[in-house]
Design goal:
Length: 220
């Protein structure tokens, strides 16, 4: 009897107190509640949208890193945007000379090279071919150039099984260069996209068969 009576009485009083507490504690009523819901939903939606945009940017950067913004064929047809570095050639000036060239590239926070490569320019067809050896391995060169725009676009293809086995996957490297009159050399960037690595950075090419061609190890 005491247990049952206590249970009924306690339950009744407890329920009444709970209902009263709910009414007194609620501040979300009518249009105010609706507006609050809209604000909270907008904030949450904005945060989720921002996160999605960040992930999309990261994905695009990783996907397109190591890929030039334009093809080699398109690159050489453009005039230099830096007129200060552009020199209008005469018959006495020939920046596209057959023979030994020195190259170096910037990767992993430091310059690699100079490396010797033999290059041949076919002025009738605008094609450039060659071969060489660098830190990665032995490679061949095939590409195109424009005497008018003073540009070179190369594809370096490494011979698998030569050089550094950790770096050489028999992959291709795109190199796009513009003549720099001040430094007396071609300058630009290299681009690599493989299943194992994606990257891009500075590349320099200077005529002459001596490492003294690069007098200064610039990192700018």
């Amino acid at each position: 009897q005491g247990a049952r009576g206590g249970s009924r009485g306690g339950g009744s009083r407890g329920g009444s107190g709970y209902r009263g507490g709910t009414n007194r504690g609620s501040t979300c009523q009518g249009s105010n509640c609706h507006k609050a819901g809209i604000i909270v939903g907008s904030v949450i939606g904005g945060i989720l949208g921002l996160i999605a945009i960040i992930f999309l940017i990261i994905f695009c950067c990783r996907r397109y890193r190591g890929r030039p913004s334009e093809s080699n064929a398109s690159f050489i047809t453009k005039s230099s945007t830096n007129e200060r570095n552009k020199t209008y050639q005469t018959y006495e000036e020939n920046y596209f000379k057959n023979g030994d060239w020195m190259s170096r590239y910037y990767q992993y926070g430091q310059w690699h090279g100079p490396h010797l490569m033999s290059i041949t320019f076919d002025h009738a067809t605008g094609r450039v071919t060659g071969h060489g050896y660098d830190d990665v391995g032995k490679f061949t060169i095939d590409g195109t150039f424009s005497e008018e725009n003073q540009r070179i676009a190369l594809t370096k293809i490494y011979a698998l099984g030569t050089g550094d086995a950790k770096e050489n996957f028999g992959h291709a490297v795109t190199v796009q260069l513009i003549w720099n009159t001040i430094h007396g050399q071609f300058e630009g960037k290299w681009f690599v996209q493989t299943n194992n690595y994606r990257g891009e950075d500075k590349f320099e090419l200077k005529f002459g068969g001596s490492s003294e061609s690069f007098l200064e190890k610039r990192v700018d």
